[in-house]
Amino acid sequence: MHDNTAPCLTVKNLTKTYVLSNKTPITALNNVSFTLQEGEILGIIGRSGGGKTTLIRILRGVEPFDAGEFKLNDLHITPKRQRDPVRKLKRITAIHLQRSFALWADSVLVNVMRRLNALETGDETADLPNELFSEYAEMKDKALELLRAVDLEKKAEHTADTLSGGEKQRLQLARQLAIAQNLKLLLLDEPLTMSDPATKIQGLNFIKKIHKQFNLSTLVTSHYPKLLLNFVDRIIWLDEGQIKAIGEPQEIIDKFLGAQEELIPFKERKKEGSVIKVNNVTRQFYTPDLKLTFRMEKLNLDVFKGEILGVIGPTGVGKTIFLQLLAGIDIPKEGEVLYFFGGEEGINICHLGLDSVEARRQVSFVRQELDLTFNAVVKDLAAGVLGIKGEPAIAAAKKRAKELNIKGQIVDFVHRLGDLPGSEVNEKLEKLGLSKQIIHDLFPIPPWSAISEIVVPIFEQVGLNQEILERKSQEISGGEKIRIALALSLLSGPKVLILDEVGGDIDQITLRNIRNLLVTLNNGFNTTIIAASHDIDFIRELSHRVLYLKEGKIIKIGDPEEVYNLYIAESKGI
Fold it and tell me: pLDDT-based confidence at 78, cuts 50/70/90?
């Protein structure tokens, strides 16, 4: 504990209420008060949507608040938000936000060097020193040291957009730690949620090293309370915008986890045939100068009807690519991915056509990067999903394609765009010389009156109140975003559900609820579920079988406990 010094941060009665676009008030923080000693690391845990991110953003100076105050050393911040104190606050604090992927379209190394250069120039857009000067070499060495600490040195020359979600998160962390020497307060919001266990520990150890070197006062939120045990001095339990408890880490964590649901057991399964067959699938990725950066070669796999298959492995080994290949979002260079939805002959979704559309209609995919359209109303997102994934939508699209003389391959191409983020949709349409109008021609959005009876029960099933359907995407928390994404994926009644890092931003209480929901779905409807996550305990509890992926290869597939133990042993170097 650091109780022998004056607090560096004092928060008094901090209150924040959001007024949603439909005029509904939501209290995010209610009279929150605490102190942070100089050099102390204070953890914050709690349910998703409990106010953790809002608190972090207010303390950074990027979120206004309604009442209360806080002091950071000699800076006094009130709801009036005078420009000068807020500007000073931003100079002496740094923030790492959950699932934040705003990076330069440069190499990993240059992303960190830009951050270091800004310490001298005050501007990340400024040119780096000339490569012939000693300043450049010193800056490069410092950047490589930071990348080494977050296990990204080997990817220093890769462009940032080729990184996995977990790698992007660690690159963001390296960029924030680059300016540690100038900071008074480091704010970390879920800094390592999308990293594998070994990298989580490595990242935390590096944060501790930086903390010790600069005596840096730190606030860190996490949905993995046990990860904070040997890292923080004290823990705050924040729930529904109020502090429920604050104190010794083990005591607070035990109280918090005491509310977890019991595990719902799997029903007895009869052995069934394959729903997916992966045959000799090969996929390769290259840098712009044609250097091979990643390879998956000759993957073979059977996924059985009605099973829950977990996928684990270190960050950056191809889990997301693997799932995208299974879902038909990415196409392999060689091999085939066959789906069996009735009939002995499988449908190869690697070939564009109306058969693939019919097969992929029955597959839902939840992306790792939950980039819900900015300013979109949630119920409109639901309408968009049913407009492209619902069975009536597919039948209508086939009819319209025939009327408009549009080939089946184009219908399939447009249908696959529904699983991509907006930026990629525009890029792919441009490459084929198509306009966005073709999406609306083939897959018009149905009116709310036609779909409300489908949408509302499914949102309630994943623990979301009906009022959230009226909110805009920027008005929901990270944990709520994941539940919304899960609800959207269930709207079309998929036979196969593919989840990429579903647990990243969900607290352990809600994650257990999600696990039980998925098992209930599997027990009741025999839905095949394929889920990848860095939370290996979640995968172990969820799965009938687990697949261990490493460097683009399947290392082992089988009993969850056996695969789990192998992965842990290899992570520790045993």
Answer: very high
With CA atoms as reference, report the closest residue to 518 among 530, 505, 507: 530
Return phi, psi of residue 484, to 5°.
-65, -45
Does residue 478 carry a pLDDT above 90?
Answer: no
Cα 363 from Cα 360, distance rounded (Å): 5
Q: Which domains does the chain have, with CATH numbers?
A: 1-92+219-258 (3.40.50.300), 260-341+495-574 (3.40.50.300), 372-493 (no CATH)
Widest pairwise Cα distance in the chain: 78
DSSP strand pairing (347-348 vs 363-366): unpaired
Are 245 and 252 in contact, with CB atoms under 8 Å apart? yes
Q: Could you give the CA distance from residue 261 to residue 239 in angstroms, rounded to a whole number?
A: 17
Backbone angles phi and psi of 371, in degrees to 5: -85, 70
Least confident of 12-21, 234-243, 288-297, 307-316: 288-297
- Please give the Cα distance from 75 to 72 (Å, whole number): 5
8 A C-beta contact, residue 9 and residue 69: no
Taken in order 332, 333, 338, 339, the sign of the CA dihedral is: positive
Q: What is the 3-state secondary structure (H, E, C) of 273-291?
A: CEEEEEEEEEEEEECCCCC
Token pair belonging to 477? 């928390």
In 20-166, the DSSP E strands lie at 25-37, 41-45, 67-72, 75-77, 93-96
Q: How would DSSP label each residue in 265-277?
A: PPPPPPP--EEEE
Residue 56 has pLDDT above 60, yes or no: yes
| Angle in degrees, CA 237, 238, 244, rounded to 5 | 65
| Separation between Cα atoms, residue 425 and residue 506, nearest integer Å | 28
What distance in Å separates the CA atoms of residue 224 and residue 506, rounded to the nearest whole number? 9
Q: Which helix (H) or strand (E) holds 60?
A: helix 52-60
Name the pLDDT band for 574 (thresholds 50, 70, 90): very low
CA distance 245 to 472: 31
Structure tokens at 274: 């394959």
Q: Which residues touch 125 (CB under 8 Å, ≥6 apart)? A: none
- How far, in Å, CA of 436 to CA of 430, rounded? 9
The type of residue at 179 is I
Cα angle for residues 137, 142, 143 (degrees, 5° grid): 95
User: Strand 67-72 relative to strand 185-189: parallel, antiparallel, unpaired?
Assistant: unpaired
Q: To which residue do tokens 């996995």 refer?
A: 164
User: Average pLDDT of 386-400?
Assistant: 91
CA dist 567 and 544 (Å) reads 17
